[in-house]
Amino acid sequence: MSDPTVLLRNHGVPVTAQRIAVLNAVTKLPHSTADTIAEEVRASIGAISKQAVYDALATLTSKGIIRRIQPAGSPALFETRVGDNHHHIICRTCGTTADVDCAVGERPCLSAADNSGFKIDEAEVIFWGTCPDCLASS
Amino acid sequence: MSDPTVLLRNHGVPVTAQRIAVLNAVTKLPHSTADTIAEEVRASIGAISKQAVYDALATLTSKGIIRRIQPAGSPALFETRVGDNHHHIICRTCGTTADVDCAVGERPCLSAADNSGFKIDEAEVIFWGTCPDCLASS
DNA sequence: TCAAGATCTGGACTGAGTCAAGAAAAAGAT
DNA sequence: ATCTTTTTCTTGACTCAGTCCAGATCTTGA
Fold first, then answer.
1. Domain of A66: which CATH number?
2. Does residue A54 sit in the same domain as residue A100?
3. Given this model, what pLDDT does residue A106 score?
4. Is A20's CB less than 7 Å from nucleic acid strand C?
5. The domain boundary residue, chosen from B79, B97, B112
6. Is there a single domain that holds both residue B73 and residue B8?
7. DSSP annotation of B85
8. Is residue A94 located within the same domain as residue A121?
9. Among A94, A121, A117, which Cα is nearest to A107's?
10. pLDDT tens for residues B87-123?
11. Based on the structure, what is the number of domains in chain B?
12. Cβ-nearest to A72 among B69, B119, B123
């Protein structure tokens, strides 16, 4: 990833130490919860409020710098891999989350036979199953 | 839907007034939250505890009598349409949720080019967009 | 350097769901 | 119809994930 300061400025986002730390934490720990990111930031810069973490995540997401997903039964997860409409595969047993390339590479990558008059802008796909580790121990 | 008492017995679920009322509420109001279902049950049988609603929903879901989905940013939603792996289309503006037939009709209906060693049992697809009503008023 | 606006802090609060003890009800046997 | 056992329901407390808000602090641009 390029310099986070440059990345933020290029997206019109004022640069703060908290935002840089949050972005670095998401880069280091893809598919993490806000709480995990907060802990990583605290280890990195010493202190940050929960509100600042949520605000930074919301701003970075709205500017397209990071991506927010929220699989069923999970809190929100964040990642820096953006722009390719990749999907995810999640283990039902341990929650491990991995990326899956999108065959199309952009939204929407599927069409609905009958879209009920909706204008579709995204087909969110999540593959659910069991990861190799949990398969091995069952 | 067949007689709810028969449906419950056929699935090995003891019949209680609360479970029947919850099942009827989900039938009447597909894609509803637990809270909406509780309100409908209270209108129907007079009183039910939140715990009983959550318990009934969990039991009915585990027996495959109803289906639980949880789109990003939403509480859990419940519906009685089961067994056909249909997908959903959701309006980003007002939250309206509609069913979309699955082209395959069973799980998993998509495969991942690279499944990272996972054994996949479901490809959850959610179409996001704008519904006709929200399109018309924008 | 300064002022204006944005952001952060700290703590209170909300919504969705879970936990647990005791009361009530369902099922099955008699 | 009755009884016993097990399950379910009720009630209230609790947790987790996220939001709200007032005041302090910081960033940006002049």
1. 1.10.10.10
2. no
3. 84
4. no
5. B79
6. yes
7. -
8. yes
9. A121
10. 999 999 999 999 999 988 888 888 888 888 999 999 9
11. 2
12. B69
Chosen from A57, A102, A118, A130 to mutate, greatest number of chain B CBs within 10 A:
A118
| Matching residue, tokens 């499944």 | B115
Instruction: Verify that B66 and B113 share a domain, yes or no.
Output: no
* B62 and B99 fall within a common domain: no
ipTM of this model? 0.92
A67-85 pLDDT, tens per residue? 999 999 999 999 999 999 9
Phi, psi for A85 (deg, rounded to 5): 55, 35
- Nearest by CB to B120, from A73, A112, A127: name it: A127
**Nearest nt to the A77 alpha carbon by C1':** D17
- Section B52-62 average pLDDT: 97
- Answer yes or no: do A12 and A62 share one domain: yes
C1' (C23) to CA (B48) span, angstroms: 15
Would the CB atoms of A118 and B91 count as touching at under 8 Å?
yes
Kindly state the tokens that stand for B47.
């009183």
Minimal C-alpha gap between A65 and chain B (Å): 19
Shared domain check, B41 and B24: yes
- For A32, A125, B53, B71, B75, the CA distances from B38, given in Å and listed in that order, are 33, 30, 6, 20, 14
Domain assignment of residue A121, given as a range: 87-136
Q: Is the dihedral of CA A134, A103, B76, A65 positive or negative?
A: positive
Nucleotides of D under 7 A from a protein CB: 7-13, 16-22, 26-28
Low-confidence ranges of chain A (pLDDT < 70): 1
B99: left (phi over 0), alpha (psi -120 to 50) or beta: beta
